[in-house]
Amino acid sequence: MRKKYLLAPGPVQAPPEVLAELAKPLIHHRTEQFENIFFQTQSLLKELFMTKLPVITFAASGTGAMEAAVVNFHSEADEVLVIRGGKFGERWGNISEAYKLKVHYIDIKWGSGIKPEEIEKYLNINKNIKSVMIQYVETSTAAMYDIENIAKVVTKTNTLLIVDAISALGVVPLPADDWKIDVIVGGSQKSLMLPPGLSFLWCSQKALSVSEKSNLPKFYFNIKKELKALEKKTTAWTPAISLIGALNTSLTMMKSYGWENLFKKNKKLMTAIHNGLKALNIELFSSSPAVSVTAGAVPQNVDGVKLVKDMKDIHAVTIAGGQDELKGKIFRVGTLGYVDSSDIIVFFAALEACLKSQNYKFNLGAGLSAAEKVLYSEENNA
Amino acid sequence: MRKKYLLAPGPVQAPPEVLAELAKPLIHHRTEQFENIFFQTQSLLKELFMTKLPVITFAASGTGAMEAAVVNFHSEADEVLVIRGGKFGERWGNISEAYKLKVHYIDIKWGSGIKPEEIEKYLNINKNIKSVMIQYVETSTAAMYDIENIAKVVTKTNTLLIVDAISALGVVPLPADDWKIDVIVGGSQKSLMLPPGLSFLWCSQKALSVSEKSNLPKFYFNIKKELKALEKKTTAWTPAISLIGALNTSLTMMKSYGWENLFKKNKKLMTAIHNGLKALNIELFSSSPAVSVTAGAVPQNVDGVKLVKDMKDIHAVTIAGGQDELKGKIFRVGTLGYVDSSDIIVFFAALEACLKSQNYKFNLGAGLSAAEKVLYSEENNA
Predict the structure, then answer these.
(1) CATH level 3 topology of A5-10+258-380
(2) Which residue of A13, A312, B232, B351 has the fewest C-beta atoms within 10 A of its own C-beta?
């Protein structure tokens, strides 16, 4: 009977409408019926990516689409630049190294942002770099990078800008065409409010012509095959049929809410979390905080692992702890996808209870009412 | 209100119990709750594969696991032997060529089987061949190969036997350990009665030691990372959470029906289809027919494309036509997964109606009653 709140930075809660779609009887994928559904998702995905160009859908989780971004747009021994400031930055490097690319790294302090000029300078000195790989949101540290301005400096060169937007897409604006990004990768289990199992890849015309010459081996993640299949309203390999039906539902829900309203809502939820934490004297871990996920620095004398565990075990609120070197030092709460003001209120009630049980000193209700001010005041109602 | 029958050779109908599982609220995958479910599926998958060794689960459709079988067990310029007798045999070749392996082919007539001695002879002459890649069931032609005896001849050599069992697993016995197969690939949308989106890879100790030396590039489909994650009851990358919950349900249902009963049932359904088609003077396309899927040769003066279309449009029975060169020449009906005697009866009623409307000469009811004899006679009731 306990009401459960999944407030991790992915997977997120799926709306009942999406869950109901998943429970529909299977249809065959080589039928007009499926092709029509897939075609509808294509047009909605284009709105999400703010593009006129096609968006590829893989039956794979996000890492698969990241691999696709590496193997389709590079050739043997290419030099690439990875911005490494967390676990997912590391992943760009690991995939590139697995394919024996020559990887340059700009290592940034976990949780920090990066100045576009730093990338510009690096590319000016290292003229052979074929691509810059970066996250929009580095989920592991809750940092967000300034992709709009990074795109401006990379666009001046021949280098491709490859963005893992798994935790950003549908949360903050990401106009693929206008910002002149080259490759964008997305996943289903974040703002799209779906279970994991689908991932997306979009690429610019410039990236597409680079891909024509790419000589890295690929098969399942071959975008050329997928783009050809897309013209026939289908996928190259058997699609994850149920998830695609659910994708159609979730994108339709998002569109009907309004893309701009969605961005506004996410920002409001983020502000509520920020203000609430501040009122509890909890610092943000990231100096360049993301809209999709907030990392709170665990205060001294508070056991961070126990905090996350108690939130779940006692209050049925699932948030995420820190990974690897951040274990016990931060907690992360997602404000992406099917999350609403009410969820943030529940989060603060549970958080305050857990902090109190660890004898952390604060005014009970302080976080809650700071959040309330943001979420339930008239001028903020979208 | 129309009752729909999905009788394709995959995707297949999912039981309501499985659909209901897909509609459950999402849980986070880095939790004890998910790890326990995943661990249960692991032990059930071992029963399905009849093995003591681990079974890897990928968030990808079957082609992804086929690629995993290529990239994990081979090295640059390895020679491999592909048995090519249909679209999926071709796929083994295409993946191997994408990774620049040196591919030998034994081309067999589409629909035919292959004598184990032929493979034995080929391996005796070509001593450098590192692996034989074959289907257990070639879904495109409805042919089944004699894997048990092929394994006997391959086992005598150092060559690995790599079997795509996507359309065979859970339909016919496939004792991975006893038959000494080296690599087996499976998928979710066949006998496992799930939507597409999961695939499986099992490998022998012998194959595992070959994989240690494999130098082909890989990341998403790296089995070493997956086996390490399996020890911690999880996957290397974000798993398709909902599908894994549903997998647990479907495997539990299969186990409770009984693996042997399942094999018996599938054989009975196949026999009913064979006898029913014979009574309608429709020949089997394959001379080495599969248990999972039957291909009927479209009789002269019957329009095969219209037949498949009418079955669906008029009678809501989805079967599959032929692909590529077999388009219009065969129709394929699946007898795998959540298919029962009642479905076969419905199939024949619809088939006879469609044949009649095309003025094909036969005794109305002949197919139906031949099937009935197999399915509803006492001695056949499992």
Answers:
(1) Aspartate Aminotransferase, domain 1 (3.90.1150)
(2) B232
